[in-house]
């Protein structure tokens, strides 16, 4: 079965609208951005906007997942083993993305955080689940899913803590936690027995 080709004009127009949205979001807060602001910046009409996106919230989600998150997703999907290097690389990719987004969309960053959080957690959960499934296929599917959720929420939460509360680099931050993540439970449990 052959894949249907997408008209390059459609791709260009969609990218033009997404870029216009990013540009407008540097000047206005998300709540104040209108479809007219975006279409004027992109030099397209409203019908063209609505052909590609249902509203500005849909546009925001697509910009985050298709444009800004692509580098993070590409970076984290390179990993096929759950180990120290994977956790460090995922954390560093995530913090780099968050810093980049915050600097690009300073005025609207706060409005984006809920959407960003949901997307990142879901992408990380999918990645961790895929890795766990490859190496533990005989385990309970629900156990693997729960583990993937815990890992994704934990890494995302740590990236937010680093962003808001840490004075050290992202690499130093995650490396401080790695020994306890990898060996902490084993050491703690052995002292309890």
Automatic annotation (TrEMBL):
<dbReference type="InterPro" id="IPR009057">
    <property type="entry name" value="Homeodomain-like_sf"/>
</dbReference>
<dbReference type="Pfam" id="PF00440">
    <property type="entry name" value="TetR_N"/>
</dbReference>
<keyword id="KW-0238">DNA-binding</keyword>
<protein>
    <submittedName>
        <fullName>TetR family transcriptional regulator</fullName>
    </submittedName>
</protein>
<feature type="DNA-binding region" description="H-T-H motif">
    <location>
        <begin position="34"/>
        <end position="53"/>
    </location>
</feature>
<dbReference type="GO" id="GO:0003677">
    <property type="term" value="F:DNA binding"/>
</dbReference>
<feature type="domain" description="HTH tetR-type">
    <location>
        <begin position="11"/>
        <end position="71"/>
    </location>
</feature>
<dbReference type="InterPro" id="IPR050624">
    <property type="entry name" value="HTH-type_Tx_Regulator"/>
</dbReference>
<dbReference type="InterPro" id="IPR001647">
    <property type="entry name" value="HTH_TetR"/>
</dbReference>
